[in-house]
Specification:
2 copies of one chain form a homodimer.
Chain A (H helix, E strand, L loop, with lengths): L9 H9 L4 H10 L4 H7 L5 H14 L2 E5 L6 E5 L1 H4 L2 H10 L1 H4 L13 H9 L9 E7 L2 E8 L2 E6 L7 E4 L2 H9 L12 E4 L1 H7 L7
The structure holds a DNA duplex (20 and 20 nucleotides).
DNA sequence: CCGCATCCTCATGGATACTG
DNA sequence: CAGTATCCATGAGGATGCGG
């Protein structure tokens, strides 16, 4: 564990726990689903294996992460504790704040479609409630995600095979711009390929109200 | 600036900008008010002066902080840009998340009453709307803060001399526990000294509904 | 004084190799 | 597969210097 700030302040104490390098990115991975050590290494390109082991130990000691035995016998699975899962709110806040950094596009950075499972609910969550339930597919970078929009909220996950009302195919930066409301479907003709019920797409990627 | 994560992910890019040590604590200080270099040093106990200078340069380059010339001539004042001020939401989220770390009390950590100016709105903000406008004083650690509760929200600032409906005197950990809703006024008799209109205090530090 | 820049030491991070 | 061990580069922390 790194050096404490030694300040009796909620932000400083939170950062004493999750402020070290890689910690919040590990939390991001576990917000998607519990994962094995190897899956974490794959989902965190650039992390050194000794650092991942150190950080998981720190987070476990702090009560953010817990080790579980996988259902199939003796494999170890890492998962967030209930308190650790409470980091979803500040993590989503940082993701929303980062929108100006993301619309520039990926540049040379590595990208995993699974990261959108955390980002899209953060960006779509504060939109007006959808008008009618629907399930969209998001095809990006060769992967297919599904966005299940109901009156009680929006859930994003890898596609599980269910029927889709529509499939949207676009680059990640376009999908993020649409979800954040800084792009709208009418301004991205030719960059977004919609297959199926376009109205269902518009119900989720709600274009900003014209001014 | 430290090494980039090299991930095209909103969280990773946000942390590329504000994830370095001390950065979010600098933002915390500037969320209270623009400040001079010396005030930042005072409000960030433990920071090395060269690090503060480095971080301010990084944050300015990234567009989070801007230097201004103070009104009285040639002094430099640091302030958040509009985008930088958008960090209030994730910072408040981390403060709410840190509640279990704060109710344990300060231990040996240093404390500044001014930090409550950021923490209290974060903890009080999701409470039910106050029933009637009031202005409270919070006396903690020899300092007096004021909490102005209106139907449109809650504002916390150093006391500016206006009339107060009531003054609450308690340790910082008690004030934070009350604001977070993990303590209520009836369980802290003897630890909280209320001077004035107790009903006005209860309207802000709303005790949790009995189960 | 204020607003930094320099210098030095040591803890932390990163890459790779290795082991149960 | 799930981590340790090792080595080196980098960054943090503290003291001090220095021009305005």
């Amino acid at each position: 564990m790194s050096r404490s700030y030694g300040q009796y302040c909620g932000l400083a104490r939170a950062l004493d726990v999750v402020g070290d390098r890689w910690n919040l990115l590990i939390v991001r991975q576990l917000l998607m689903a519990p994962a094995r050590y190897r899956e974490l290494l794959d989902g965190l390109p650039g992390v050194a294996t000794n650092l991942l082991a150190d950080r998981l130990r720190d987070l476990e000691t702090a009560g953010v992460v817990e080790r579980r035995l996988a259902e199939e016998g003796n494999a170890i699975v890492y998962a967030l504790t209930p308190w650790g899962a409470g980091l979803r709110e500040p993590v989503e806040g940082l993701i929303r704040w980062s929108t100006p950094l993301m619309v520039r596009g990926p540049g040379g950075d590595r990208f995993r479609a699974e990261w959108l499972v955390v980002a899209l609910p953060a960006l779509l969550g504060d939109k007006p409630a959808v008008r009618r339930p629907s399930t969209l597919g998001i095809a990006v970078d060769g992967h297919l995600l599904q966005v299940a929009a109901t009156r009680s909220g929006i859930a994003v996950s890898p596609h599980d095979g269910r029927d889709l009302d529509a499939v949207v195919r676009a680059d990640a930066s376009i999908v993020l711009g649409l979800a954040a409301g800084v792009l709208d479907l009418d301004d991205t003709r030719g960059l977004v390929d919609i297959d199926g019920d376009e109205a269902a797409v518009r119900a989720v990627f709600n274009p900003p109200a014209p001014s």
